[in-house]
Amino acid sequence: MASSRSNARLIRFGIFALVLIFCGYILTKGSSYPAVSPVQNVANTPPNPAQEAKKAVEKGIANAGGAALGGGAQKALNNAAAGAGAGAGAGAGAAAGASTAKGGKVKAAFVTLARNSDLNGLSESIGYIENRFNKNYHYDWVFLNDEPFSEDFKKAISALTSGTAKFGVIPEEHWSYPSWIDKEKAALSREAMVQKQVIYGGSESYRHMCRFESGFFYRHELMAEYEYYWRVEPDIKIFCDIDYDVFQYMKDNDKWYGWTISLPEYKETIPTLWETTKNFMKEYPQYVDPKNNLAWISDDNGESYNGCHFWSNFEVGKLDFWRGEAYSKYFDYLDKSGGFFYERWGDAPVHSIAASLLMPKSKLQYFHDVGYFHVPFTNCPVDEATRLAKNCACEPEKDFTWRGYSMYP
Questions:
Q1: Considering its fold, how many domains does the chain have in total?
Q2: pLDDT (average), residues 20-30
């Protein structure tokens, strides 16, 4: 049984590797950095989201002193309106509309790593999130960058969010080589990965991004006041109304990590990640939760890693898990090994391994009812009643969950 299961995993990984090669550099993390809740019925037809987005931008600019939108901001306005309009999709005239709930009560925020050049794609993402969810709850948004955001960017983005938009610069020590890294060795590693045509194998900035998302985003001063976060990337789409407070659900049900899509990692990027993790478990066995989810990430009781990971461009999480002693020790152990720079460790496998080993399996939450898209994969509710009730504008046959290389637990 174990042998056949392992062979099946290998076949699925082989198929997925071909998909990765085909997608090439299209398969990104979304920026220029290389249980169903009850539906609430309302009688009113949802407002035209394109008009709402336009009004929001015009109001925001007026509040900023009547400054004219620059070319980039005007494009962002157009994209946000288009994104919000598409987000409403076929559900605009449906009987089941948006939730009547107003104002979230949890200390939570959306968090996005972006650059000024992401203005258009990020505006579209915000349009989807606001129309499908946050217009009812007004949660804050935190935007982080390794360089200052332009005033044009901040005006355009602030006008689109129903909650407070906050903009922060990443500390240099969180986006640079730590003292123990041999830069020459790291450069040689990048060159070798380029020769092997490993995705983002030659990118320095991608490595800094993965390290930051793995160990530092939750430490930023703008995140200090929050208990939960929802990661949002540029150019994503939300296909269904989210008619309940996701953060309140996480808190009420004591969930620590939520996800929508799971898939295998490209193993050329993480040749020693599991060996390093096994060494950590041997040295710090007290941090491995006895009710963990090891069986999902290993087909041979921990001898090897099968590559399964949650796609981290969508994740909803409890910040105290990342801030806690167990994960802090784990991240520091990985960081000292140099794998973020000598190899190309991604934040997705790092987060997924940690969530599978350092917390009880019961703390994981699969958001099957959240219609979600990030190039090139889609999560779409397969249940027709759910799609109709939530005004979904996605095709269930494109749902990634039941694909051969999906790693659904």
A1: 1
A2: 42
